[in-house]
Amino acid sequence: MVAIGCRGHEDGRRRVGRRRRSSRPAQAGGDISASPRPATLRDVAALSGVAVSTASRALTRPGRVSGETEARVRAAAEQLGYAPSGPARALLSGRTGVVALVVPDVTNPFFFSAVRGTQSRLRQGRFAHLLVDTEESPAAEERALRDLRGTVDGAVLAGARLDDERLAHWARELPIVTINRSQPTDHVVVDTPGGAVQALQHLVSLGHRRIGYAGGPPTSWSDGRRRAALAEAAGRLDVDLVDLGSHVPRREGGALVADAVVTAGVSGVVVFNDLLAFGVLARLAERGVVVPDEVSVVGCDDVFGADLVRPALTTVAVPSERAAYLATDLLLNRLEGTRTTDAAPPPPLPTHLVVRGSTAPAPRP
Amino acid sequence: MVAIGCRGHEDGRRRVGRRRRSSRPAQAGGDISASPRPATLRDVAALSGVAVSTASRALTRPGRVSGETEARVRAAAEQLGYAPSGPARALLSGRTGVVALVVPDVTNPFFFSAVRGTQSRLRQGRFAHLLVDTEESPAAEERALRDLRGTVDGAVLAGARLDDERLAHWARELPIVTINRSQPTDHVVVDTPGGAVQALQHLVSLGHRRIGYAGGPPTSWSDGRRRAALAEAAGRLDVDLVDLGSHVPRREGGALVADAVVTAGVSGVVVFNDLLAFGVLARLAERGVVVPDEVSVVGCDDVFGADLVRPALTTVAVPSERAAYLATDLLLNRLEGTRTTDAAPPPPLPTHLVVRGSTAPAPRP
DNA sequence: CGACGTGTGGCAAACGTTTGCCGCATGGTT
DNA sequence: AACCATGCGGCAAACGTTTGCCACACGTCG
Question: If both were cysteines, with which of A57, A337, B185, B188 could B327 make a disulfide (CB 3.0 to 4.6 Å apart)?
Fold first, then answer.
């Protein structure tokens, strides 16, 4: 059979390429649930006896068509189970109604909060939520960003692992808001350095004079800032701050930290991450070191589980869900033109120390 | 100014509607990073001196064009930072390359595993991952499904809250795979009833004769199946099984359960959910009831934190990440035509009891 | 030397929606 | 009665890509 010259079912236009999946419009009455092909606006228009453009307006421009027509079109749409095609809309408008959340590791409970915060703001804005895990790899992050552009209206980057230059580049390609990363783009930062200093002060007030800091990945922007703030505070408070190295922020990494704690002979330790801190607690218990009697441990993030572990973890509570919410809010405002890029960045979100059972007065030497 | 009759910049086609965002193609040389408009295939074609169709083929049909042309087009694409438009592709092909994961509550750590499993399979298939939270509401679930159709190639439903009839309806509208729900569609089920029975046997072997079951939401399919399995096993093992009611599967719900445990005078309890079990543990401790000496508690799911809490929770380990992986695998195979809908369903995934510190021999009365 | 196959590139339709412009009809105003 | 404003609906282009068909230019074989 030849495609050329064969007539369409109603408009007589020639069709090339893949044949229509079905040349009949979705059946008008009866069981619509078995319709193999989703109804299009054309079907709706045909059923209600108006032009496609009118059908479109009836559904999206309240008041633009007469009440009677609108009712007829709506009824037809309802009957056919019509839902507009996202891609078609996106193609024309350039907006997909989708926002991506890019995280380095979906496994980390910290990023669960990011998921929640983003999700809750996106729901309000009727946006859909694309989730991308870059597995801590800057290359994967960049690939994701490339593919995302055009598929997505904007992206929230939590814990971006890209270097500044590449990040700036992509921020020019699509709307980006970062969390915990100050950049030539919009961002929300959480004052974890302030929290770390609070943790240090807490330990000092308990009589600790020799305190360790167990850091996270070198690519983490927050880690660098915390190190600096801690060093400054340690100088001011006149205590010894011992660098316990960089660690993979997972429970497995904690064993190494625990051993370093013992070796370095510190009586208290501030740990990059609750996850890491859980590992520290487990390993110290294994080695027979009693927390908090012999060593005090402070975590960071106050993730799910911090109050479950025994002793319950003293930790810097980070409003991460709120941060993600705000970041998404910023992004959406920018997408809707409510906010311009050069508006003042929001102030850092405050953190606070939650004192639980893993810290206590320093042991008498 | 009039649009009609005004000539386009190169093809002489009339243009109506929104003016082109910029009539020049993205600049050929120099700083491409500042390009305000993403490069299209037309730009690539123009730069390499071929037709759009040829450019398309050069990039997607290896061997269809001469090697020399392909190289030229690839170079141009590279130079312009070209990335194909997802929506445009989707519109024509009917495939978006996106799969949705629909969960009732992103807050629940159990669903985090679903996120991970889905994510890891989707990555292999080069699919993107849309995350939808229905907040335990069947209505929201249905709305999501409606909007999803056309925007998404298929959906994985973990813990669907829709009734059978509606679910069957939507399964006809778009490819759906469910987790823990046997349906006239593809599905992966986890043998939690078997696990619950294991838990019961464990308690019985420890000497417990009066055992409670604290259930989850009535809309949960798994909950119903577990109840049945437990009732049967209790009869067979000749022990008293006490129904402790239906509960919201969160920590907050645990207080109620704990009180019911005390009131009902059971010495052991099987709880719908680890989350709920955490709440039970906390409340029992608050009331001065010692676990496991006075009451034994078994959870379900083995979520993050089950080994952190004290006493560590004895629980039914559920391979939820694997279940999500398999469900996604089923879906992708179906999308790629590797699998037909009427193929045999995979067998239930086995569960096993992880015995930790929250269970012990029944107290002597 | 002509017929034919093969390799390569172009034309233009099609996917489903939105929207600028135009035309028609109706009702109100001078 | 002629004119104008307004309301409503239709036409058709446009978004960016893919792809069936065709056209052209070779080279080879009879």
Answer: B188
Residues B314 and B325 both lie in one domain: no
Angle at which helices B109-124 and B320-335 cross, to 10°: 40
Does residue B265 share a domain with residue B148?
no
Say whether both A159 and A251 belong to one domain: no
Overall domain count for chain A: 3
Helix axes A109-124, A274-286, angle to 10 degrees: 160
Q: What's the confidence (pLDDT) of residue A58? A: 94
* Tens-place pLDDT, residues B14-26: 344 333 444 344 4
Same domain, B106 and B250: no
- Please name the residues between 139 and 158 in chain B that touch chain A, using a CB distance below 8 Å: 146-147, 149-151
Nearest by Cα to A83 from B96, B142, B104, B159: B142
Is position B294 within any domain? yes
| Nearest nucleotide, CA B19 to C1' | D14
- C1' (D7) to CA (A94) span, angstroms: 30
What's the CATH code of the domain at B60? 1.10.260.40
By residue range, what is the domain housing residue A123? 96-189+321-335
Residues A170, A174: Cα–Cα separation, whole Å: 6
Answer whether B151's CB lies under 8 Å from B174's CB.
no
Instruction: Please tell me the pTM assigned to this model.
Output: 0.84
